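Need tokens for this chain, all 252 residues.
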Amino acid sequence: MKQMYILGGIAVALIALLFVIARLPQWLAGDVPTEPITQTTQPTTMTYDTDAGETTRVVMTTNRGDVTIDLFTELMPITAGNFLTLAEEGFYDGVKFHRVIDGFMIQGGDPLTKDDNQIDAWGTGGPGYAIEDEHIEHPALTNIRGTLSMANSGPNSGGSQFFINLVDNTNLDFDKQPLSSQHPVFGRVVEGIDVVEAIGATETDQRDRPLEPVVIERIEIIGMGEQAEELEAEDVNEDDADGEEIRLDIAE
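Here are the structure tokens for all 252 residues:
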């Protein structure tokens, strides 16, 4: 009987020794897990203090990431409706952000940017018509960080070009000083502001063009509001030809 106890003790000791030998490399390595830890990042969301009424949600997919935008289809039916129509037609697919100024805004929407041979004309293109300005007093319709606004070269000259504000640029509102710029806000970023800011930090040349292309791959409508409607013919001025470069002035 005593011999059996001795043999049992030896067996337990051997099992314990084998366990220690098997675990020793992991203990020495600081118990590093063998499977990689997968980290997921969520799109940065934006919250706003103002109600913009009924909106239509779209996702702008770029080669730098996705940006989710709520279009003000109730407050701004002409401008938001125009953007939706162009998006549905695939007008923006392949268009680049051709003007990027960190601490100000990122500008895109010119179809000429699809052709690198026309780089000297980037910023002058459009859909071949202009829409009526919608200047409406409303707390949500101000050029603050994250808002989507119409680029233009003067009154009633907007077409397809737009910009996203990287900071508060209320000097671009029609009803705020210095009253020299009038750019209607028609939407705002709700997710992906980190993507917008990363684009804003892109290295550019002396004309504010990104050295590495920033491309809109597609814009998808994921939630239609009842007020979203196609641009009516009476809102279009086909006599307003493209050709003048659309540039926003940086506030002093």
